[in-house]
Amino acid sequence: MPTYTLKINGEDRSVDVSSDTPLLWALRDHIGLVGTKYGCGIGQCGACNVHVDGNAIQSCLVPVAQMEGKEITTIEGLSEDGTHPVQEAWKEVDVPQCGYCQAGQIMTASSFLDKNPNPTEDEIKSAMHGNICRCAAYNRIQKAVALAAEKIAK
Amino acid sequence: MSTTISNSFSRRAFLRTSSLAGGGMLIGFNLFTACKNEAKMPVDIASLNFNDFNAFIKIADNGMVTIYSPNPEIGQGVKTSMPMIIAEELDVPWDEVHVEQGILSTKDYTRQVAGGSQSIRHGWDALRQTGATAKQMLINAAAAKWGVDASECTASGGVITNAKGETLGYGDVVKEAAILEIPDEVALKDPKDYTIIGTDAGNVDIEKIVTGKPLFGLDYKTEGMVIASVLRPPSFGKKLESFDDSSVRKMEGVIDVIRFGDFKGGGDKIAVLANTTWQAMKAKEALSAEWSDGTPMESTSNHDKLLTDLLDGTSFNTLRKDGDVEKAFRNADQVVERTYGSPFLPHNCMEPMNFYADVSANKIHLVGPIQTPERTAARVAELLERNSEEVHLEMTRMGGGFGRRLYGDFVMEAAEISHLAKKPVKVVYSREDDMSAGIYRPAIKYRIKAALKDGKISGYHLKEASINSNMYGLIPNFFPAGALENYQVDVAKYDSNITTGAWRAPYTNFLSFAEQSFFDEIAETLEIDPVQMRLDMLQKVKGTTDERIQYSAERMEDVINLAVEKSGYGNPKDGVYQGFCAYYCHNTHVAEVADVLIENNEPVVKKVIVAVDCGIVVNPLGALNQIEGGVVDGVGHAMYGNFTFKDGAPEMNNYDRYRLIRMKEAPKVETHFVKNTLSPTGLGEPTLPPAGAAVSIAMKKATGNRMYRQPFVENMVEKEIIG
Ligand code: FES
Ligand code: FES
Prior knowledge:
The complex is a heterodimer of chains A (154) and B (723).
Chain A: E1 3-8, E2 11-16, H1 23-31, E3 49-52, E4 55-58, E5 71-73, H2 85-93, H3 102-115, H4 121-128, H5 138-153
Parallel strand pairs in A: 1-5
Antiparallel strand pairs in A: 1-2, 3-4, 3-5
Helix pairs in contact in A: 2-5, 3-5, 4-5
Chain B: E1 2-6, H1 8-11, E2 15-19, E3 25-29, E4 55-59, E5 65-69, H2 78-90, E6 97-101, E7 103-104, H3 119-146, E8 154-156, E9 159-161, E10 167-169, H4 170-177, E11 185-189, H5 206-211, E12 226-231, E13 238-244, H6 246-249, E14 254-260, E15 269-274, H7 277-286, E16 288-293, H8 300-312, E17 317-322, H9 325-330, E18 334-342, E19 354-359, E20 364-368, H10 373-383, E21 391-395, H11 409-421, E22 425-428, H12 431-436, E23 444-453, E24 456-467, E25 487-494, H13 508-526, H14 530-539, H15 553-567, E26 577-585, E27 588-599, E28 602-613, H16 620-640, E29 645-646, E30 649-650, E31 668-673, H17 688-703
Parallel strand pairs in B: 5-6, 12-22, 20-21, 24-25, 28-31
Antiparallel strand pairs in B: 1-11, 2-3, 3-4, 4-5, 7-21, 8-9, 9-10, 12-15, 13-16, 14-15, 17-25, 18-23, 19-20, 19-22, 23-24, 26-27, 27-28, 29-30
Helix pairs in contact in B: 2-3, 3-4, 10-11, 13-17, 14-15, 16-17
Bound molecules: FE2/S2 (inorganic) cluster (FES) (2 copies).
């Protein structure tokens, strides 16, 4: 099996996997970062979203072979201690129900707010539309993204 | 102010106490039953026996309180509400109470089930009494130490104070309290004095969730564990003939390929074991197998016909019959009959089914997300012909339940595979596996016929045609049962080889839509206000002596009036179309008003106003989350949920073809509680059933189209008008 060196949360990690292994499974099964979730495996739910060079992407769709030399950030590396404004907003609003989709939601929201720190309600809705929450906590997700934007502005 | 209640429960020993070897007091209690006589209290935390007790509370000698409860958490906030109730009556600060998930180690276990919105309702009395009893024992111990009468002492915030103003912390007297007699009478607080119940408490796992810590079954891992991906029959009814695994065995990471399913070396499933999830899934996809047709291959088109034939036929089971509906039809001014249809629905828990099993010579270790641990542990013991004492089942957090995790099929698979492979194994479903090996909400049809006379409903006949099972329990006695002279509910079913089961708010999730849409149409026919029609019908229910009628006309009136007031129903803003629905199920009364707008020529559900009577709201923050989720889930499945079969196989198996509601389609949910001091009832389910009905009624006003079928996006209109 080929060895790939991935830069994850600021650290170089090497993995021995077949070239078609999606980043999602390399993270979960080889590197032991299980915060990134599997929901559909076909790019439809956003549970697996991570940042690659600052953009939120679906880690179930990208093979490890294409990830060398890129900066990958997972939920575990979003902040040192869970105090990223988006994480803070999520706690304040008490967003999660079952919680399973939330890492993906947070990763989508944080990359979106990096690019658009002052979004309208419609922009928030469009940005979050790719992330399914089966528990349908959508009202709170929307509220938490808006709150995070406020926190970032401060 | 407090109410003293005789602790009759405790004399039957629903709780016991002991003093812990390492210091501190331990209280073991049962939520729903008395303890068995032989139930022994452990003296250390390592040996908590959850077969004898539902939960334990430890009060340490530093005053810290820990609750050990194996009650599963599936997003309903039970881990928050239960300790809040204990903390309230025990009178300790909420942030000094910690909850730890207990491990279930044996069989006969009482209702450790998170389903049916029942956890809080059933636990309410027992939890309060346990907290109050422990507090009284601590007070008694302190009083004895001071040599004063217990009645001169008070306790609050974990501190006991006597008449002279001297104080002792709970931790200072746990040793003495632990060996006291359990008092026969304890005082419960007046709800007016609550300081914890009714305040907002966040999700106990929030910190871990937002930082991505391992919590769920899919995150669980042990040394030497392998992953199993399972190839199951592609259609319901097919049998495995043969398979060729020669090339798959050579694939990277593949450890073994095992046929299983009947526990005798045969069966219709094939497990591919590999080192990692990706390797296992890929190898399973590559496996080639031959299948034979066992029973007829079913399709949605023939289900549709079979259900219609059942409704047209005569072989019904009558679940409730008041008066004489036939006579009412004969004497009617007008008869209206409508038929409503719904598809199968998969649960689609966000975390696909998975379970860990390590079956070894003297222990069966099971770990994962399950709603019925005790039943499942017993079934695994039975399957493997092992002593149930050998089964240790540990629950993880669940990425959704919705009824799917009541069934232990995936646990049995894990256990059988681990037994055959002689290895610790985690079975992992892909989304496709999860959606195509489901235990679905069955497709159902309702036909409702009403006799109208002198501007009122004089007869009501509801027929249900369902697959594999019919409505049960008290459902046939929900509104409008009791409100009508002539009323009848008949059910019939067709036996299918497609597996079906409970889905969030079983039966009512669709029945509510059928009945409530029907009422709206009746009101329209009679040219009366649909809200007033319901209020008038409720009058007859007041003071009923029929014990099967468990909804309350008064509580129903309260939620109706509250919803009308808050939504401005009857005077909508320009361009807003409102649909009204009131429903009772799972012991909770709910009324909802949906606001629909037309945007770009499409009806859009903008907002749902919800009025809820769930008694005392233990944790409003958690309650609101469940209510919002239930409403949006109800709107989503009514609008989009469509699951069809062709030749025995589901036609959709992932989110590209199966549509779930997303952010842009989700309405805003505005919730209002009826304030009272009645015992709390559950919220996991009751707000879902009314949502589809309220939306369909608003859509009718907005578009002129009445919906008779779910999902609404298909917008198939069936009209049958008789009379
Ligand atoms: S798991 Fe990647 S989008 Fe669903
Ligand atoms: S919180 Fe359960 S899927 Fe989003």
